[in-house]
Amino acid sequence: MNRLDDAFFQRDVLDLAPLLLGKTIVRKFDDSSESRFLITETEAYKGEEDLACHASKGRTPRTEVMYQPGGCLYVYLIYGMYWMLNIVTGEKDNPQAVLIRGLDAVYGPGRLTKKLQIDKSFNGERLQTSERIYLLNNDLKCDYSVAPRVGIDYAGEYWRDVPWRFTLKL
DNA sequence: TGCACGATCTCG
DNA sequence: GAGATCGTGCAT
Question: Where does A2-168 sit in CATH, by number?
Fold first, then answer.
């Protein structure tokens, strides 16, 4: 199994979000133990025109990381208590990201960051070179289903209903 | 300087 | 069904 590199992540978010399903996420902890999970649910957030994407506010200190070349993490706090884990995708200056919503045995984006001990210090971390978090290509072929994204009712009729949530079929 | 609100989850 | 809890963006 090889570590997924920058080139893998630097494709369009709508291509990458389903491709991430079934990939292995590895988290190495300070005590040198490690956890491995399969990614089972993702959501795509695509560019400044996507009203559900934080980059729709434009380039700000918060969204800056989404403008970096694909392959780094975008981590932010929601509801004052949960960290959300996103993988930045696409080319430089093209703000896109995939929200990791679920892993095998860990359901919910807020729960998985707690389990993996992900916090703000991971914002901007590059998956190709990080010592503590990376993804492996396990060549798992899998089918998936699509649905509208969760928790973005404010984004307006069109963006609210776009089927950009991808779930691994068991 | 203040305020409303959110890519969530838990408990009752 | 409501509360926890705080960074962010936008209004003042």
Answer: 3.10.300.10
